[in-house]
């Protein structure tokens, strides 16, 4: 027996069905992008691991939580797996929210480690102990086209000057309201500290691998220097803006 119901109730039921269908489509899309991000990150990191294995047979690979570490002498190259980001990953007001989405994030970094007795771990003149960058699987450069991008952040004093002797900088950040404010140049002590760059294309991938391998070699040889750090104006970036 077919039940005749009020038209308003019928529309509410239909609206509920449409909402559930939209949620399922969003979940399917997010799952597919998370898989894409993992595969693309593996392809990005594979040449780095292969080069380390080929030229540093003494390398030790370690696992700490979700971080993979390649260690040779006092030098360590570290990276994390791709972590999915929800649809509201920015968690901020619309006027601050960046005009792109991040589907997953990861980190890559180089550290200078001390020995078992706690000696070393930083350049004796500069205090540099390493740098860690953010990797975001996002559509920052073309709406709807997701790719891995790289950037890094620095924490400054209230007057905008850098903290002297900060050992690890730039540092990595996951998407969030404070990062959104930094990208929107809204002030605050968290600021962009490394250019926001796309990692798609053969030239970009080669440059990425060679740059991190060079920093890793510097850490192994005790020659790691970050060079001059300064906040970068995000308005100079070329990621997509509405």
Plain-language structure description:
The chain is of the alpha+beta class and 242 residues long. It has one domain (38-236). It contains three helices and eight strands. It has helices spanning 7-55, 177-183, 202-221; strands at 60-64, 67-72, 75-80, 83-84, 102-112, 130-138, 147-155, 190-198. Helix 1 crosses helix 3. The protein is globular and about 80 Å long.
Given helix and strand content, the structural type is alpha+beta
Please give the largest β-sheet: 8 strands, antiparallel
Strand tally is 8
* Whole-number total of structural domains: 1
Question: How would you sum up the global shape?
Answer: globular
Q: N-to-C terminal Cα separation, in Å?
A: 53 Å
Structural features:
242 residues; 8 strands; 31% helix; 24% strand; globular
Structure described in brief:
The chain is α+β, with helices and mostly antiparallel strands.
Topology:
Blueprint: H1 7-55, E1 60-64, E2 67-72, E3 75-80, E4 83-84, E5 102-112, E6 130-138, E7 147-155, H2 177-183, E8 190-198, H3 202-221
């Amino acid at each position: 027996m077919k039940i005749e119901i009020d038209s308003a109730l019928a529309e509410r039921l239909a609206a509920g069905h449409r909402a559930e269908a939209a949620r399922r489509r969003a979940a399917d899309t997010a799952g597919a992008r998370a898989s894409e991000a993992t595969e693309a990150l593996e392809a990005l990191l594979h040449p780095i691991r292969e080069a380390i294995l080929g030229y540093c047979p003494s390398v030790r690979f370690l696992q700490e939580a979700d971080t993979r570490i390649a260690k040779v002498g006092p030098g360590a190259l570290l990276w994390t797996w791709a972590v999915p980001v929800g649809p509201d990953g920015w968690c901020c007001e619309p006027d601050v929210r960046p005009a792109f989405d991040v589907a997953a994030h990861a980190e890559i970094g180089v550290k200078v480690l001390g020995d078992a007795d706690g000696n070393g771990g930083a350049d004796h003149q500069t205090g540099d102990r390493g740098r860690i960058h953010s990797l975001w699987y996002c559509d920052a450069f073309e709406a709807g086209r997701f790719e891995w991008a790289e950037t890094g952040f620095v924490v400054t004093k209230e007057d905008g000057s850098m903290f002297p002797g900060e050992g690890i900088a730039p540092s990595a950040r996951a998407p969030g309201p404070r990062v959104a404010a930094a990208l929107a140049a809204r002030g605050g002590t968290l600021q962009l500290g490394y250019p926001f760059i796309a990692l798609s294309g053969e030239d970009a991938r080669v440059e990425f691998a060679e740059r991190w391998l060079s920093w890793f070699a510097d850490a192994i040889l005790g020659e790691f220097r970050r060079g001059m750090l300064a906040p970068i104006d995000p308005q100079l970036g070329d990621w997509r803006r509405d």
